[in-house]
Amino acid sequence: xxxxxPLALLFVVGAYLLGTFPSAHxxxxxxxxxxxxxGSGNPGATNVYRTAGRRAGLYVFxxxxxxxxxxxGLGWVVVSRQLALFCWAAAxxxxxxxxxxxxxxxxxxxxxxxxxxxxxxxVAVIDxxxxxxxxxxxxxxxxxxxxMAVATPILIWAFGxxxxxxxxxxxxxLLVLVRHEGNIRRLATGNETTWRRPEPDGSSG
Length: 205
Hints:
Elements: H1 5-19, H2 23-29, H3 45-52, H4 54-78, H5 81-96, H6 109-119, H7 121-138, H8 141-158, H9 163-179, H10 181-189
Helix pairs in contact: 1-4, 1-5, 2-4, 3-4, 4-5, 4-6, 5-6, 5-9, 6-7, 7-8, 8-9
């Protein structure tokens, strides 16, 4: 068991570094947009969708989800499911608090969702459905994300998840919710930005 400790640490650190990959800066930057200086200022798929266009937003979402999925998947396949849980959390932490960008990252929703699809596929499918309903009804992506963050540990517990699985899911969900603190305040006061489609040519409208 102790022989696996260095390998486990290597995977966790690697998962964190993978989480820091600046997907929003890369894809929005190709359209001349700095996601930290445009729209909400958040380097995430929703803000890129609004400011750099539909295609760029989709690329960012895919890349961010991929970070969580790859981190969890590699940890599981190469070492164990237990390590995969920590890699999942590390990738989300890297996305939210990247040392490469002064701890100014995204909100972790897509990265958390990508890891959940690998580790808890049924939970992830239900989460996605809840997101779609909440976002459609409220016309805000933030409410959908908040609903997902709240629902994930509850669903893992409901489906018989272990104590460790529930604990790590709770930590990830709390991290996502803390990053949505401003959105929660705006939702409470009715000032949250509603979902807005970009123009067909990819501009933000």
